[in-house]
Amino acid sequence: MMSTKRDQIIETTCQLMEMQGYHATGLNQILAESGAPKGSLYYYFPKGKEELAIAAVEHTSRAIQGNINSVLTAVPEPAAAIKTFLTILAEKVAESGYQAGGPITAIALESASTNETLRETCHDAYQSWQDIFAQKLQTGGYSAAHAARLATLLIAAIEGAIILSRSARSPRPLQDVAQEIDLLLKCTHSG
Amino acid sequence: MMSTKRDQIIETTCQLMEMQGYHATGLNQILAESGAPKGSLYYYFPKGKEELAIAAVEHTSRAIQGNINSVLTAVPEPAAAIKTFLTILAEKVAESGYQAGGPITAIALESASTNETLRETCHDAYQSWQDIFAQKLQTGGYSAAHAARLATLLIAAIEGAIILSRSARSPRPLQDVAQEIDLLLKCTHSG
After folding, report:
1. What is the C-alpha to C-alpha distance for residues A26 and A41, in angstroms, rounded to an integer?
2. A with B: how many residue pairs have Cβ under 8 Å apart?
3. SS3 assignment, position A171
């Protein structure tokens, strides 16, 4: 199936770029690890590595949007939903042996000052995750402006705590963040 | 001066690894950009790139400890001191054209699952910054345990907001985080 080959290439790109970053990941390694023939890579991504990286970030972004949505939909109250999301995340990062988490962080960092198109794609991904949290917070009575600021803090704290947890090889930083964010939401709850 | 040559090599390493990460930075590039002769690199860092990266992270860590200490010492009240630190940080990141900030993030991410010694060095750096904020919070009346959790949230939110600000090319994420952290500290202030 042609669409399966395209997906394989994209998923391999996501994994390699999460582990190694953008610059260290070459097209030959993507070809070798995805098992796709060279022709199909250039057929689906004629512009090469940048086009592939953009597709990979967009693919990851949609997957994470799905994860966030499924947890936030399952738990009605915003503070409880956010606590549940962070608890599950801490478990997932630990279960991966602290290898996974923050799938676009390396690309976002590398592209921030070197590749404008890729930088914008990463920015759009972060914004899309923020918007989901902000909307959930608004259902709890926060104004649109306050919900947006809280959602920014959430995404920032999640990104940072994943780095700290991986670096400490411990779920503790993510758990501490979950506890303090919960305290903040209880303090400021206006509903 | 021999110590100046060593410093030059370390500072070049810090800059290159901040921009490109650990894997993408080679010894030849460090030599070329620092202007140091090959012999002096092997004289000061006989074990090569890993030893150099560890020295670079430790150097960066001490510099940041100095920055945090100088702001937190200048402003007596913890919440005000932390707000000042974040405001200055947002300005610095903007002034760098969104190129600087989060100097060890790329190394921490890359080393998390590939280099145990370097991972521990990054972890120690994060811990040292956290400890300074935690101590300041304790002077405001927080228990040691609560101050440690808040300091973890702070370091996580700062790390993450730098990535978001660089990716958005805007000081806004750092400013939003400053505002929400201030709210949290005012809500939970037990002094």
Report:
1. 12
2. 173
3. coil
Nearest chain B Cα distance for residue A62, angstroms: 18
Question: Per the domain annotation, does B43 fall within a domain?
Answer: no
Q: Which of B113, B118, B152 to mutate to test the interface with A (most CBs of A within 10 A)?
A: B152
- A164, B159: Cβ pair inside 8 Å? yes
Question: Chain A: nearest CA to B104, how far in angstroms?
Answer: 11
Question: What CA–CA distance (Å, rounded) separates B169 from B99?
Answer: 9
Please provide the average confidence, as pLDDT, over all residues in chain B.
Answer: 93
> Is B159 in Cβ contact with A158 (below 8 Å)?
no
Q: Which domain holds residue B119?
A: 58-188
Q: Is residue B25 part of a domain?
A: no
Residues in chain B with CB shorter than 8 Å from the CB of A148 are 176
Nearest to A162 by CA among A82, A106, A81: A106
pLDDT at position B191 over 80: no
* Residue labelled with tokens 């994060």: B126
In this complex, the residue of B99, B168, B184 whose CB is nearest that of residue A113 is B99
Closest CA to B106 of A167, A4, A12: A167
In this structure, is residue A12 part of a structural domain? no
Helix spans in A26-115 (H): 27-34, 38-44, 49-74, 78-95, 105-111
Which portions of chain A are predicted below pLDDT 70?
1-3, 190-191
B163 vs A110: CB contact, 8 Å cut-off? no
Tell me, what amino acid is at A83?
Answer: K
Please answer yes or no on whether B153 and A157 come within 8 Å at the CB atom.
yes
How many domains does the structure of chain B reveal? 1
Cβ of A21 within 8 Å of Cβ of B158? The answer is: no
- Is residue B25 within 8 Å of residue B13, measured between CB atoms? yes
- Give a yes or no: residue A113 inside a domain: yes
Cα separation of A170 and B127, whole Å? 13
> What Rg value do the Cα atoms of chain A yield, rounded?
18
State the pLDDT at residue B1.
46
Say which CATH number the domain at B85 has.
Answer: 1.10.357.10
Q: Which residues, 6 or more positions from A66, have their beta carbon under 8 angstroms from its beta carbon?
A: none
The complex's ipTM works out to 0.94
Residue B107 φ then ψ, to 5°: -65, -40
Q: Is the whole-model pTM more than 0.80? A: yes
